[in-house]
Amino acid sequence: MKLVKDSSISRRGALLGAAASGVFLGTGVATAQTTAPLASPPVRRNISSFAVSNWRDHFDNLNNGAILCDIDSRAVQYCSEDESVYKLYPSSVPESEELTKRGYTSVIKKVEGPSWRPTPSMKIRNPDWPDYFPPGPDNPLGTHALYLSWQYYRVHGTGDTRKIGRQSSNGCIGLYNEHIKELFALAEVGTQVKLF
Q: Are the C-beta atoms of residues 98 and 121 closer than 8 Å to each other?
C-alpha cells in the first residue's frame, strides 16, 4: 500500500490531534496518557455582543421607519415602516457616560459629504483641533451623516475603522462608511431614533 502525503495536515495539527485523543507520540512509540488532563481555561464572554431589540419595545409605530442605537451592545438597528427591511450594523459609541445622550430623537437632515466643526466643549478638551474640517476622507463625519434633532448629535460614518465597536466618540454614533451609506439611503427625514 502506497501512502500519499497530505500537505493539508501539518506536524502541529497531527500533534494536537494526538493530544486531543489522549495519545502522546514519543520517538516512534505511541503511549497512553498517564497524567490527568489539563483543566480547560475559563471561557471569556464577549460582553459587547450584539443584542437584537424588537422595535415594539421602543416605539408605538414604525411611521417613517425606526433606528435603534444600542449603546451597550454598540450596534445600530434599522427597521423600515413596512417591516420589509431590517439592518444591523456595528457602531462606535460615546467615550463616556458624560458624553452620552439617551432617549428619543429623529432624523432632521441628511447630508452626503458633510463638513464638520468641533463643538465648543470639544475645542476645550482638544484645543489643537482645527475649527473646520471640509468634506473629504479625513472628515470625522465620514461620507454621510444623519443629523438628529439634538444639537451636535449625528449618526455618521467614519474613515477610522478602528473606532467601530468601541467607546470612541464625543457623543455621536459612528458607522463604517459603507454602512452609513446604506442607512442613509434607507432612512428619511422624520425617521424616529432612539439611543438607549
A: no
Please give the positions annotated as active site.
156, 172
Give residues with Cβ within 8 angstroms of 146, minimum separation 6: 67, 107, 109, 110, 154, 155, 156, 180, 183, 184, 187, 191, 193
Name the pLDDT band for 49 (thresholds 50, 70, 90): low
Q: What is the pLDDT of residues 156-176, one digit of tens each?
A: 999 999 999 999 999 999 999
Q: How far is CA 191 from CA 27, 104, 164, 179, in A?
A: 69, 11, 23, 17
- Euclidean distance between CA atoms 179 and 157, whole angstroms: 8
The three cell numbers locating residue 56: 415594539
**CA 57 – CA 47 distance, rounded (Å):** 22
